[in-house]
Amino acid sequence: MTAGAPARTGGPADLAGLRRLAVATLDANWEHDHTVPSRTLYPHQWSWDSAFIAIGLAQVRPERAWRELASLFRAQWADGRVPHIVFNPALRVGAYFPGPELWRSATAEGAPAVDTSGLVQPPVHALAAWLAYRRAPYPAGLAALRRLYPALVAQQRYLAARRDLTGYGLACIVHPWESGLDNSPAWDEPMAAVPAEATVMRAYRRHDTAHADAAHRPTDLDYARYLAIVAAYRDNGYSDRGLANGHPFLVECPLFNAAVGAAEHALAEIAALVGADPGPHRARATRITEALVRRLFDPATGTFAPRDLRTERLVPARTVLGLAPLILPDLPTRQADALVVEARSARFGVARRMDRPLPSYDRTAPDFEPLRYWRGPSWLNVGWLVRRGLLAHGHPELAAGLRRSMIGLVAGAGCHEYFHPDSGAGLGSPAFSWTAALLLDLLAEDAGTAPG
């Protein structure tokens, strides 16, 4: 595959082969009531992975899509948070790092009976539930959606009541892992203030570098700081009270809050379907979009940026996080147009068609790393989100180019966790579930399924 030109699919036979690959990947990763992200790197259940996976499963195994979401929400905490990891008790201690022995969720007030982490991830679950129903609108799916609706509302209530630390209407993340983009350059400045030494990691055995090249993963210093933040939150009982008085990492993230707003839009649709009032969801969605524009849009750069609450400064790194608010259908035209310009710039796309893989970080930045996790590589989940935003704001030709690039990545390298944004080489874990699931969603359009 030549640089900047991922493999092209030919005709229906090629697409059918990709579809079989995606289904086989999801079937191989199915674990009795949920799907593991991969059999090597990630042997437990991850929160936003399950949401993306449910969207793809709805195309081929709709009953599993609802079991996927139901199993995740069975681990919801009493305060409404949905943990970012639900641990499989059948696995041996040490099967994943950091495991339940480090999180110690059982000691926290309101934690579920099963071991989990105490963090959350972007709340894309209401959107996933709505799309899963749209993909397969059958009676059992409607019943499952009705059962899930109160838990989805509780998830949103937790973020609004416990994580709005400033009162401006945005949720704060308390760890880079909550953003979903673990080692993004967006976190370099906030993380630099977290005291930790790389030597801390000598006491632990990292699971990820046993299965993937260490040059493609976060560094030991990153992990030492991650653990310091986890310890601070855990030792306070995972309580959100008093976070502003000393927690080492507090950031308003544009992707996370765009997901919160998109969830309210999805919940309005679900509410109307199940007989609840959609009005409050629509009102909250409007307020979130207004807060995002007011707090996180930088008119000087024409993009959104995280705000470090420790310094009250917008983070200058130009990352794919800044494009995520495109998924909000009520994003004002000025901001939507500016994000399209950013997406088509040399930093992220190609001016005319956007059919080059979308990187996770500014290609023109001096510290751009095309092999290292969220510091450059292309990921299908954020590409899928940005594509939805392009469609929502009237750019079907750019969305089509981005779709071609994503399908081309899998056609050239398989269902990898992430990809080199220029060569298209597969990186991270092979046989990765959300890559397979979102590929199925992209391919469904060739089978006549509307994007929804």
Automatic annotation (TrEMBL):
Assigned keywords, A-Z: Glycosidase, Hydrolase
Gene Ontology BP annotations: oligosaccharide metabolic process; protein N-linked glycosylation
Q: Which residues cross the membrane?
A: none
A Pfam family: MGH1-like_GH
The protein's superkingdom reads Bacteria
For this chain, one GO molecular function annotation is: Glc3Man9GlcNAc2 oligosaccharide glucosidase activity
Residues covered by the Mannosylglycerate hydrolase MGH1-like glycoside hydrolase domain: 42-435
User: Which family is this sequence assigned to?
Assistant: Belongs to the glycosyl hydrolase 63 family.
Q: What is this protein called?
A: Mannosylglycerate hydrolase MGH1-like glycoside hydrolase domain-containing protein
Please give the organism: Micromonospora cremea
